[in-house]
Structure formats: structure tokens, C-alpha cells
Amino acid sequence: MSIENFIPIDQLCTHYKVEMSFFSHLNELGLISIKTVEKSFCVHQDQINDIEKMIRMHQELDINVEGIDTIFNLLEKINKLQLELTDIKNRLRLYENLNDFY
Amino acid sequence: MAFIDYYKILGVDKKASESEIKKAYRKLARKYHPDLNPNDAIAEKKFKEINEANEVLSNPENRKKYDEYGKDWKHADEFEKAKQQQHYQQSRQQQSTGNFSDSDYSDFFESIFGNRSGRSANIRYKGQDFNAELHLTLKEVYTTHKRTLTIDGKKIGLTIPAGVKNDQVIKIAGKGGKGVNGGPNGDLYIRFIIAEHPNFKRDRNDLYTTVNIGLNLAMLGGEVVVDTFDGKVKLKVKPETQSGTKVKLKGKGFPIYKKEGHFGDLYITYKVQLPTNLSDKEKELFKELSKLRPS
């Protein structure tokens, strides 16, 4: 596995001024996936947006890791519901215009 | 310039202690933080107001200044004179720092406290989220294609995946406003508005269309060529096909979003068109027919 697409956790700790234990805890809850690449603990670069969001929640809102986990689950549910609502609105639009069509 | 009641924004009394202000700020920030309210412009505006109120009231020096100004804000003539001079200094400072977004703080705030460079510079703020609408036709979203959008004067290349839905919003991380004090950039949210197609209706991944067939074809059967988004398709029409008969063409519908090579189905409704302007011969033959099959 090449380190090219991975970011070492210790760099993230320095950059965002966060303890290593914060990342370990996120990993334990399955919120991020820590991999060992070339003998250092890393996260894939695709996770960085979510990680930044989690750090902001932790630092700016004093939310602990369990709270972040709950929020992420709820945001995912909201996102699914919004997609469903979009689908339903589009179906409604279809049926409202059906008379013009046939 | 309207007076802003920061105490009211945080919902605290004017005699509130520092800890009460902090508590009120935390509570409201958890409610309106942009990360907890994605794509919600009202929450974002509210969060900025809360932040601004907290910046003032959590700092004893700023709070004292605000309390003095707040008390006399209706008689602010003298203040206005001072402000003009201060404004000149600010604009000079902004030219040298150049990275502060005016929209993050109210004019009221700026007039009292100047620009951000004079305040707690270590607080990082995420940049403003941008919202845009992109109008497309149904035909355009049938295939994955690239577009270049101009947002806030900057060109942004965007790949629009086939099968995107009407009213769907996609987020492009980091393409919003610039972050403050090294904070992350905001995000760009694009809402897709897909125009109705005159011949095809879409329901999720399925397409619906109506095909007109003549009486002879409907009665005797034969072949008809039908337009699909994927090209023309030749279909067999069974003898004695009734008007309103539906046929399903599997996999000829709309592409499924982010599932390359997967498509919904196309539903075709046959509409039998009765002949008009009958000739004498045709009328005679219909009469013959009616004798064979009295209705």
C-alpha cells in the first residue's frame, strides 16, 4: 500500500492541535478507518472532509466522540430523508402533469 | 446602520455573567452550527449572528465598549464622525491584509470594533457556503458530462453524473468562500433543476412515453419504430392491440445515479388513433364490418 493517498495521523494531530486519543476513539467507533502504511498510522485522504467536520464539532462545540457519532448517524438519516423527499416531490410533479401527457 | 442587540441574540440578560454568556453561546452554536445544518442558509446566518454576539460579549473590553455604544446608539452623531476616521484606517488595513470577508460580520460590528485583524486572530472560521442552481434538460442528464461554472468570479469544472435527479443537491467541498484565519474553505452546493421533456416523463429511474399507432396496425399487428434516449427501437405490435396497452422495455429507461451501466425501464403506452376524413369506399367497408360485428 502506497502512502501517496494517505495522511499520517501525527501530522493531523499537529496541524489541528488534537490529541492522538481523539483519532483512536473515532476509529474505535468506526467513524474513521485508521490504516498502517509504511509503519505509520494513517487515514485515507477521502476521509479528510469528515475528519475536519468532526474536529470542528469537537473544538467549537465541545461535543465528545459519542456525540459526534450520534450526529453523523442523524445527518445520514436526514440526508436519506431529503433524497426520499426529492423523489416524492418529483413523483408528485409527474402525476400532477399526467393529464397533459396522455 | 441598524443597532444589533447582542444580548437578545444570545438570549441573556444585560447583567449576565461571563459563564452565562458562554453557556448561552454554546447552546445556540450547537443548534445553528453549519456542520449540523448543511445547506441551510438561515441557520448559517443565525450562526454568524451568534458568533458575532459572542465575540463582543465574551470579551470584557469589547463588552464594555458595546455597552457604552449600545446605550447611546440613538445619538450617534459624534460616533459617526469618529467612525469615518476609523473607516479610513480600516480600509487601509484591509488593503494590507486582504483576506477578510465583509459578509461574515455586520456593518454594526465593523463600525465599533474594526476589522478582524484587530481581534482574536487565532480563531479559525470555515468560509461561507455558496449555493447555486443549475438548469438542465432531461436529455442532458441522461449522460455523464462536464460543465464549467463561474461561481463568485472563479471557474469551477464539474462532472455531472448521469441520472442526477430534479431538485437534487450535490456538495462540492472546499469550493465555497475562503476560510478565515486558516480555517477551511466553505462548500459549494449545487441544486439541479431539470426541465420536463415533451415526450418522456421520468419517475425515479423509469421513463414513460406514449406512442401513437394507426387503427390498421392496432388491429392487424405489425412493427413500429419508437424513439428512446438511446436511439430508435423497432417494436412488434401484437394484433388487436387496445388503446392504452403498456409495454415495458427493460433497461431502456434512465441511467441510475452513480451506478454506471445500470438503467431503469422504459414504459410505452400505445394510443390508437382512429382515422378521420373517411372516403366513400372506406365508409362502405366499415358498414360491411359493422354487419359482421354489430356493436
Provide an overview of this structure:
The complex is a heterodimer of chains A (102) and B (295). Chain A has 102 residues and is mainly alpha-helical. Chain A has one domain: Multidrug-efflux Transporter Regulator, Chain: A, Domain 2, CATH 1.10.1660. Chain A contains 5 helices and 3 strands. The model of chain A has no long low-confidence stretch (mean pLDDT 89). Chain B folds into 3 domains: 6-118, Helix Hairpins; 130-194, Sandwich (HSP40/DNAj peptide-binding domain); 201-292, Urease metallochaperone UreE, N-terminal domain (HSP40/DNAj peptide-binding domain, Sandwich), CATH 2.60.260. Chain B is 33% helix and 24% strand. Chain B has a 4-stranded mixed β-sheet. A 3-stranded mixed β-sheet of chain B has the order 1-5-4, with no helix packed on it. The A-B interface holds A 49, 52-53, 56-57, 60-63, 71, 75, 82-83, 86-87, 89-91, 93-94, 97-98, 101-102 and B 26, 29-30, 33, 35-36, 38, 126, 165-169, 173-174, 184, 196, 201-204, 208, 210, 269, 271.
Give a short summary of the structure.
The complex is a heterodimer of chains A (102) and B (295). Chain A contains five helices and three strands; from the N terminus they run βααββααα. With 102 residues, chain A is mainly α.
Could you tell me the CATH topology label of chain A.
Answer: Multidrug-efflux Transporter Regulator, Chain: A, Domain 2
List low-confidence stretches of chain B.
Answer: 88-102, 117-121
Largest sheet of chain B: 4 strands, mixed
How far from one another are the termini of chain B?
Answer: 82 Å
CATH architecture of the largest domain in chain B: Orthogonal Bundle
Say what the CATH topology of the largest domain in chain B is: Helix Hairpins
What Rg of chain B is obtained from the alpha carbons, in whole angstroms? 33 Å
> How many structurally independent domains of chain B?
3
Summed up, the helix count of chain B is: 8
Q: Which residues of chain A sit in consecutive blocks of at least 5 with pLDDT less than 50?
A: none
Total number of beta strands of chain B: 11
Main sheet attributes: strand count, strand direction, barrel closure of chain A: 3 strands, antiparallel
Helix content of chain B: 25-40%
Quaternary structure annotation = heterodimer
Going by CATH, the architecture of chain A would be Orthogonal Bundle
Rounded average pLDDT of chain A:
89
Distance between the termini of chain A: 57 Å
